[in-house]
Amino acid sequence: MASSSAVDLADIPSVDLMTELLRRMKCSTKPDKRLILIGPPGSGKGTQSPIIKDDYCLCHLATGDMLRASVAAKTPLGIKAKEAMDKGELVSDDLVVGIIDEAIKKPSCQKGFILDGFPRTVVQAEKLDEMLEKQGTKIDKVLNFAIDDAILEERITGRWIHPSSGRTYHTKFAPPKVPGVDDVTGEPLIQRKDDTAAVLKSRLEAFHRQTEPVIDYYGKKGVVAHLHADKPPKEVTNEVQKVLSS
């Protein structure tokens, strides 16, 4: 085995090896962090998680992506997940926790992880905590991206996209030069199916009903930090850094 990996390394450009070595040296001094990001759609979790990931050398666990990867790799858990999906059933909580359990053993998750999109229910949170307890670890912080529904509606329903380039606009915050058309090509802009008021309303209802109790559950353990997710992204980043350095 060793010889084949040596060949693999020999093919990697020096600058990439050095960059990775420096990253690992910098990471070795960072405290371990196991984080959960909770917030409704449009609250800015997607903007902040790559910043947190890089700052603290964590791995980012998006459960939807992990499920798809397990199915594609045909791991034992992936095969079970595919059976459920093929029947149109939801993948069981135990399976998702098993996939997280597998993922956090990877070297990239050595310093900890950011969980995004899970747990969505208190039962899932309990199963996650049980699994972590077996490994002798626990969740260090839950970042609650708190934001008013009305602000979210304005944020999300104002989003317009130029489909072929992926350029995004916002009717209020970043409007195109000419309403409804792309600045560069002059082609019409579209709205994502999920970015309508009706879809947002149902997603928010589900969030309040299922996921807000998760915040209370972790609140009782004293690990929740409430962020002002309505602030500009830079200010939210500063808040996150304060919370995680304390």
UniProtKB/TrEMBL annotation:
One of its GO terms (molecular function) is AMP kinase activity. Residues 159-194 form the Adenylate kinase active site lid domain. It holds the Pfam family ADK. SUPFAM superfamilies: P-loop containing nucleoside triphosphate hydrolases. Keywords: Kinase, Nucleotide-binding, Transferase. Signal peptide: none annotated. CDD domains: ADK (cd01428). It catalyses: AMP + ATP = 2 ADP. One of its GO terms (cellular component) is cytoplasm. Its EC number is 2.7.4.3. It comes from the Eukaryota. InterPro entries: Adenyl_kin_sub (IPR006259), Adenylat/UMP-CMP_kin (IPR000850), Adenylat_kinase_CS (IPR033690), Adenylate_kinase_lid-dom (IPR007862), P-loop_NTPase (IPR027417). Belongs to the adenylate kinase family. Catalyzes the reversible transfer of the terminal phosphate group between ATP and AMP. Plays an important role in cellular energy homeostasis and in adenine nucleotide metabolism. PANTHER family: NUCLEOTIDE KINASE. This is adenylate kinase.
